[in-house]
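Weekly modeling sync, notes
Attendees: AB, CL, MP (scribe)

Item 1: holo prediction request
CL wants a bound-state model with zinc ion before deciding which constructs to order. AB pointed out that an apo prediction alone won't tell us much about the pocket. Agreed to run with the ligand included and paste results into these notes for async review.

Input as submitted:
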Amino acid sequence: MTLAAVMRTIDAPMAVEEIELNPVGPGQVRVRLTAAGVCHSDLSLANGTLRQPLPAVLGHEGAGTVVETGEGVEGLAPGDHVVLNWAPPCRACWFCEHGEPYLCQHAEDARAVPFATAGGGPVYAGLGTGAFAAETVLGAHACIPVPDDIPLAEAALLGCAVLTGVGAVTNAAKVRPGQTVAVIGLGGVGLAAIQGARIAGAAEIIAVDPAVAKEGLARSLGATQFLAPHAGLAKEIRSLTGGLGADHAIECVGRGETIRSAWSATRRGGTTTVVGLGSAQDPVTFNALEVAYFARTIAGCMYGSTDPAVDVPLLLEHYRAGRLDLAALVTDEVGLDGVGEAFSRMRSGQGARTLIRF
Ligand code: APR
Ligand code: ZN
């Protein structure tokens, strides 16, 4: 039996329940969670903006220790520390073979298969991960080894916010030294993007969020300017960038309005990288003149365009060298019964990451 926060219906509180994990199958491992971050995508799954078979154990930003390995698992053994990957690539599909493992056609396979039972019925793992549980069972290829000297609770953040935010800047936008970057939305993902921009050598990093209490943290992680959004935001960003607009905007909210304003804040020829995962009912509009005339680029970005197996070790190098601050992204810690509390804070734009500690 394993304790887990189980989501039974959309928009209802999750109770901590006992679940029975499936036996560890071939190619799978059982992991005892040390910590799991609460991400906006969990909130989007909980309120129905994103879909997931139910009942489900959400949580996809986790780290823990391998406790059992299934038949045929190589390179992982009980006792190993791992970070969980919520979109594990199959390494064989068209996307994987063309250097885009973050778009793997099989990355979502595990989401459709139950990983546990409760009260005689199946329970699914949120994003195939199920990290809001003391233990989870998932594919060995979804586990990235982490050396023992890395604090495992902080490493959990690598699994989503940091891979996504840093990757958006370095892999997708490919920010160059000296460029100007606007980061819209300062949750765990946006604050990681700010760090990514600093690591990439950006000259100006303009942080945007209505929660003005985030200014201090944003600046301590690398932001050179902080703005609250308003109708004239794009104009203000242009005036802060020599009248041009930013070379890059990184959108980390996931709303039509913020995607549009990120785009308007970029210079002629600039790029907008959309990280935020919004609603299918929320359109973004462009007029027929401006697209070609401004020669701007807008690109979506999944999982920071990363390959976690490659990028987690790189991020750990940044961490060891003191360039990447993981602890600063954790603004609250709760137990497994604190998911609702974390969601409330997220809805009101308070704090960066809440970490569930097991
Ligand atoms: N302009 C700028 N920032 C905004 C705006 C706005 N109009 N509205 C909200 N925000 C801010 C919130 O105040 C909050 O600080 O966006 C931030 C979002 O942070 P979180 O809710 O913590 O979200 P996070 O987990 O960082 O994810 C961001 O990336 O992966 C996706 O699904 C995820 O769409 C989500 C996004
Ligand atoms: Zn996430």
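Recorded for review: The mean pLDDT is 97.
Action items: CL to compare against the apo run; MP to circulate these notes.
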